[in-house]
Amino acid sequence: MTKYIVEGGRPLFGEVHISGAKNAAVAIIPAALMVSGPCRIENIPQISDVKLLLGILQDLGANVRYVNPHTVEIDSTKLRNGRVPYESARRCRASYYMLGALLGRFGLADVALPGGCDFGGTRPIDQHLKGFRALGAQVDTQGGFVMAEAVGGRLKGTSIFLDKVSVGATINIMLAASMAEGLTVIENVAKEPHIVDVANFLNSMGANIMGAGTDVIKVRGVPQLRGGTYSIIPDQIEAGTYMAAVAACGGEVKICNIIPKHMDCISAKMCEMGVDIQEVDDSLLVSRIGPLIRTNIKALPYPGFPTDMQPQMAAALCLAQGTSIITDSVWSSRFRYTDEFKRMGAQIQVDGNLAIIEGVDRLTGAQLEACDLRAGAAMLIAALAARGISEITNVQYIERGYEDVIGKIRAIGGRIRAVEIPEEEPVISSAG
Ligand code: EPZ
User: Fold this and answer.
1) What are the pLDDT digits (tens) for 244-281?
2) Which own/partner pairs from 421-426 qualify as long-range (CB within 8 Å, at least 24 positions apart)?
3) Nearest C-alpha to atom 4 of ligand 1 is from which residue?
4) Terminus of the chain with fewer CB atoms < 10 Å: N or C?
5) How many CA atoms lie within 13 Å of 307's alpha carbon, on the beta-carbon side?
6) Ligand 1, closest atom to CA 301?
């Protein structure tokens, strides 16, 4: 087990290089199993979710080779269809993309139901299964597994209208439809940058997908996907996380390797808070010299403000002048992290999917426990801004989605170190 020890209370100065997008990479790796030939994927982030998914592909018989730390070559020509076991699927929610990929290529899929970040509520996949059934698959869920089989051996193109805007369902259905027979039209889809990235990856491998990034995606199925090379987009949320750190701590940091368009919704909100942002080619120069100003945030599907940034913004708003309100319209209970902030002196009230944050003059270091990926990142920000020492445990959550977080924080002047601690003894209830 590892914990981070952070000495906070000083502004940040320096440069940080943004890695490839986690939520693109965790979909593109499963998509690569559909390709009969070598896929060269560049700008792949070095995070534990990527390593886990590459391991699943290897277990299914794909050849996986790192050309360099950020470029992997996957050849799924000889991949054998098989069950994706619970011990793999439970550790990474994106393992559910194996369903659409295996069903699309082989007409058959058998995948354990996913795990991933628990926001206190359920994380259903009913829209994914609705799409597979519409494409002509028989889908059963039993014993913690989803088993799907295309009637007649191959999926057939159709029209699907999603009941809910869902990133996962949009991507999973797009994967399955990319090798179905005929045209599939998917409406009311999600439009996040990583959805466009997955569509662009598939098209570079010979798929025929149009409209990704708009409300309607059209997929003309092809019988086979061949090999090719693709570079993953930079991570909008990682970049936003470091922007929020500057907002909370003050200072000036150059955030390198971003796509400015993807940052618009985050940059706009930061400017409202008194953060200065200058766009320089594929970088943002982010600085905060004066006081942090309160604002309201409503987390919505793209191009709205991303839910995956609301915990990080909450950390900064704890130190803003005035009262801020954050509403998360995507996840109904994604505010568990606020309990940890309160232990640092934050003044926050949570009511369902709404948090009211009354800014305070300072936070003080405390012992913190990460409860999910972005909550862990938010605790890092709060610890960097707080006076004194903080210790953060359960950092494996953070390392699922942030490459070299220690090195990157040190590069901008943050004082942080990782310490190994003995595995915690499981607490055995004294009850009978
Ligand atoms: C993806 O999760 C991301 N994960 C999440 O990021 C992100 O918070 C979320 O999209 C929203 O942007 C990955 O990409 C691996 P959804 P996903 O399906 O696909 C409901 C992170 O921090 N819904 O868009 O699981 C659902 O309950 C992670 O990187 C259904 O009702 O999210 C939620 O309220 C955390 N039925 C809403 O839709 C379904 O079948 C959006 O969920 C699917 C979803």
Assistant:
1) 999 999 999 999 999 999 999 999 999 999 999 999 99
2) 421/1, 421/2, 421/3, 421/393, 422/1, 423/1, 424/1
3) 23
4) C
5) 18
6) 12
